[in-house]
Amino acid sequence: MTEKILITGAAGYLGSILVPELLKNGYQVTAVDTFARNDTALAAVCDNKNFQPVKGDARDEALMKQLLRDADIIIPLAALVGAPLCKADPINAKTTNFGAVDLLASNLSSDQRIIYPTTNSGYGIGEQGKFCTEETPLNPISLYGVTKCDAEKAVLEKCGGVTLRLATVFGMAPRMRVDLLVNDFTYRAVTDRTVVIFEGHFKRNYIHVRDVTKAFMHSIANYDRMRNNAYNVGLSDANLSKIELCEQIKQVIPDFIYLVAEIGEDPDKRDYIVSNDKIEATGWSPDHSIDDGIRELVRGYQMIRNVKFSNV
Questions:
Q1: Phi, psi of 292 (to 5 degrees)
Q2: Mind telling me which Gene3D superfamilies this protein's record contains (predicted)?
Q3: Which residue in 141, 173, 3 sits closest to 77, CA to CA?
Q4: Model pTM?
Q5: Whole-angstrom Cα distance, residue 78 to residue 74?
Q6: What is the largest CA-CA distance in the chain?
Q7: Where are the domains positioned within the chain?
Q8: Please, what's the b/e burial string for 198-211 (b: 16 or more CB within 10 A of its CB; e: otherwise)?
Q9: Which helix (H) or strand (E) holds 41?
Q10: Using an 8 Å Cβ cutoff, are 170 and 234 in contact?
Q11: Helical axes 15-24 vs 209-221, angle rounded to 10°
């Protein structure tokens, strides 16, 4: 029997890679999105009879309760992603990032499965030289982090799901995000050949968008032994400072110049290193390195010269 997957925010950055992979593996996919951008991120899968797009809002209680009836697996991707966007629109951030997920978690039956992507930005500011594990207390320092952590708590406590604490995502996708850090710095290297860095010693972890899809597929296949748990999902060899990231970009684009500002602050104060040992112990491993992603982005940016591909 073909399993049915309900995805909210399906036409976004993650969904534009995940939905085609699910369909390729034989799942029926109901893809909820506002489709507000009027783009064609999922146009290539419209010929698949197992694909059903639904134009709607993940906060619509009547709609979501109706769609939940037929779903075996739920993947809530709908969110306002990133600290700047959430700060600019706090009401929508709270109602979408937390409220819409809490709605799903509160209405799931015991035989339905939910896999929720949260963010490792919930760690906030880590201890110097100490890896953040899933046991590390969460300390979000932005509204984005707070709403995602609250939603993760709802998923774990109300329905014992699987939550994936994603590192900063990078890589090309049909619905592109240029504002994410690796994508942004590489875009500036390709177009401007320079970038000014504030607080360049701040570290974070990274993960390729296709490896995020691999983590979802892995979680579906191993749900019973992974459930009731959170998992960090990132590259274990990519706990990099902004300066170290720029050095890697410079290896690919030698005439790229980065300048470290002696004054000024980064409004995003996240600074931590992350251990991904827990999910790796279940058999998952990433396929794409930071270098792979930078080279992919360089190729992709030969086609993109438009800031519409960001969230802010």
A1: -55, -45
A2: NAD(P)-binding Rossmann-like Domain (3.40.50.720)
A3: 173
A4: 0.94
A5: 12
A6: 61
A7: 4-169+206-233, 170-204+237-309
A8: ebbebbbbbbbbbb
A9: none
A10: no
A11: 40
Q: Which residues lie closer than 8 Å to 7 by C-beta, 6 or more apart? A: 15, 18, 19, 22, 29, 30, 31, 32, 74, 75, 76, 77
Q: Give me the CATH topology for the region 170-204+237-309.
A: UDP-galactose 4-epimerase; domain 1 (3.90.25)
pLDDT for 147-202, tens place per residue? Answer: 999 999 999 999 999 999 999 999 999 999 999 999 999 999 999 999 999 888 89
Give the whole-angstrom CA distance, residue 98 versus residue 79. Answer: 9
**Tokens representing 105?**
């978690």
Q: Check: CATH 3.40.50.720 for 4-169+206-233?
A: yes
Q: What is the mean pLDDT of the chain?
A: 94
